[in-house]
């Protein structure tokens, strides 16, 4: 049985979570629209640059929301966190033979390090590393079942059976996916990828195109704050040791070559996606998710990062 999670929620009994979210929603208004909406595919470029949503779920299963909390958006690279949990459950520590756990200091789709490091990506959150993770899940689940395994995981951990892939975005990812194709075939040439590359790519494009709201994401991330136990389904969806390690990797690698800046400003384990979403984990307390489409130059939500910085400092949940 997993170690009983230290419940740190009671030390924040004085915090009015709803008021905190409402205040952030008001204070963020002058910052909405700063940054650049991802435009590498048309479907993302049409996102409303003024949209903003925030949700906070506690490990006891209560969810607080504000702004555009119920709008589903493309989770993009946030999917890499959940796929990593699935891969660790299936493959265990052997996964690290084919992907590292060090910050890359490079952009999310960089290829240069791969040649120097024999095709083994630095970490599971850059695209190359995520492709290794997806390839691993396919090895265990079968070709078509990789995406189904992830969807089942997200539906259970968020309690929303309606979570699906936006097929239009998935098709667009494939149409503009030559960099990812290059990364995948390059790794295959080193023997780092095992499965059929087109199937791994297709699964990766589809996982990026999963649509969720901040409310769903804040619930789905709760197992990472509760040592693998999902308070929504009341089941262990991951192993306690793995969840702590996924958090460690999020802290060091969750924002690409801006991970140090995120750690400095927010002080929480977090993962961003180019759809403008970010999740952040507060162990023993809960999970907070934000969404604002315009990105900074590292591909992380501009207003989303600012909102998390405020959330962390105003409530005192900063880990340090
Ligand atoms: O692989 C890509 O290029 C995108 N579909 C997803 C990358 C992503 O979200 C990187 N994030 N900040």
Automatic annotation (TrEMBL):
Catalysis performed (reactions): L-glutamine + H2O = L-glutamate + NH4(+)
Binding site for substrate: 77, 127, 173, 180, 204, 256, 274
Sample GO molecular function, one term: glutaminase activity
InterPro entries: Beta-lactam/transpept-like, Glutaminase
Domain of life: Bacteria
EC number: 3.5.1.2
GO biological process: one example: L-glutamine catabolic process
Alphabetically ordered keywords of this record: Acetylation, Hydrolase
Family in the record: Belongs to the glutaminase family.
Oligomer status and interactors: Homotetramer.
Name this protein carries in UniProt: Glutaminase
Species of origin: Parvularcula bermudensis (strain ATCC BAA-594 / HTCC2503 / KCTC 12087)
Gene name per UniProt: glsA
């Amino acid at each position: 049985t997993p170690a009983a999670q230290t419940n740190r929620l009671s030390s924040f009994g004085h915090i009015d979570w709803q008021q905190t979210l409402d205040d952030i929603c008001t204070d963020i208004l002058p910052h909405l629209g700063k940054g650049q909406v991802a435009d590498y595919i048309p479907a993302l470029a049409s996102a409303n640059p003024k949209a903003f949503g925030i949700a906070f779920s506690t490990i006891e299963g209560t969810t607080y929301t504000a702004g555009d909390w119920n709008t589903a958006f493309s989770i993009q690279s946030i999917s890499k966190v959940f796929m990593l949990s699935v891969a660790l459950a299936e493959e265990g520590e052997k996964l690290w033979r084919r992907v590292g756990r060090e910050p890359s200091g490079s952009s999310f789709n960089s290829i240069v390090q791969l040649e120097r490091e024999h095709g083994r990506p630095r970490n599971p959150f850059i695209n190359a590393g995520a492709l290794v993770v997806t390839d691993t899940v396919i090895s265990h689940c079968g070709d078509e079942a990789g995406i189904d395994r992830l969807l089942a995981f997200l539906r259970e951990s968020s309690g929303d059976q309606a979570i699906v892939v936006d097929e239009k975005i998935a098709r667009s990812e494939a149409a503009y996916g030559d960099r990812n194709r290059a990364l995948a075939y390059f790794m295959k040439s080193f023997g780092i990828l095992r499965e059929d590359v087109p199937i791994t790519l297709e699964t990766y494009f589809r996982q990026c195109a999963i649509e969720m709201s901040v409310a769903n994401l804040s619930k789905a991330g709760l197992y990472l704050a509760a040592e693998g136990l999902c308070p929504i389904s009341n089941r262990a969806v991951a192993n306690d040791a793995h969840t702590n390690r996924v958090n460690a990797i999020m802290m060091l690698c969750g924002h690409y070559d801006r991970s140090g800046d995120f750690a400095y400003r927010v002080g929480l384990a977090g993962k961003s996606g180019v759809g403008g979403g970010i999740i952040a984990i507060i162990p023993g307390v809960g999970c907070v998710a934000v969404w604002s489409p315009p990105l900074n130059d590292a591909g992380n939500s501009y207003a989303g990062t600012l909102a998390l910085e405020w959330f962390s400092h105003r409530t005192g949940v900063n880990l340090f």
